[in-house]
Amino acid sequence: VNKTRIAPLSKSQYLRGLQCHKSLWLLKKKKIKPRPPDEFLQAIFDEGTRVGEEAQKLFPGGKLIEFEGSSFEEKINKTKEYLASGESTIYEATFKFDDILVMVDILNKGKNGWDFYEVKSATDVYKDQLLNVKDVYVKDVAIQYYVLKGSGLDIASAFLVHIDNKYVRKGPLEVDKFFSIVDLTEEVVDNQIEVN
Question: Residue 192: CB partners within 8 Å, gap ≥ 6?
Fold first, then answer.
């Protein structure tokens, strides 16, 4: 039997599949390549990168897994190396479990285990006045939780970090006021049945 190996599923591909099964099927089975980002979309990606770099300042002194210049396997191994050496904060920590690949924006050792933070450049993350976070963000954090738990990490909390639209800058950027941090642990744990 000639069995073709399919590449691991990335977090963004997982979220794409939740929105449109056919799109994911075409991407994975028919190897239809997504169009490269146009200038506008690239600017959004670049802004997201800058926001992520600012969010890292909430947890200074961490180790960065560089995106450029290494394979995902090398990123995973570097993450394992940092964990084994006792690093308490890792930016872009990379894990693969159940053939799903995730890169965690911020992984930080807390008092009760590991906390992880998904950073978004969005200001509008709520779907209603009751401050319920939009499903797409919950699912984003939920798939990371699934992979991290499956990789053997003791996860204490899962957070969404986003830009606080009430922040008014007066002088140097105050990252602790610029960002709002939402604890999604309960929603993410409840969502694990759907992820599995």
Answer: 142, 145, 146
Identify whether the C-beta of residue 65 lies closer than 8 Å to the C-beta of residue 79.
yes
Sign (positive or negative) of CA dihedral 57, 58, 62, 67: negative
Tens of pLDDT along 6-61?
566 666 666 566 566 566 565 656 666 667 766 766 666 667 778 889 999 999 99
| 125, 131, 134, 135 alpha-carbon torsion, rounded to 10° | 150
Answer yes or no: pTM beyond 0.70. Answer: yes
Domain ranges of the chain: 9-195
- Looking at the structure, give the CATH architecture of the domain made up of residues 9-195: Alpha-Beta Complex (3.90)
Cβ atoms 123, 165 nearer than 8 A: yes
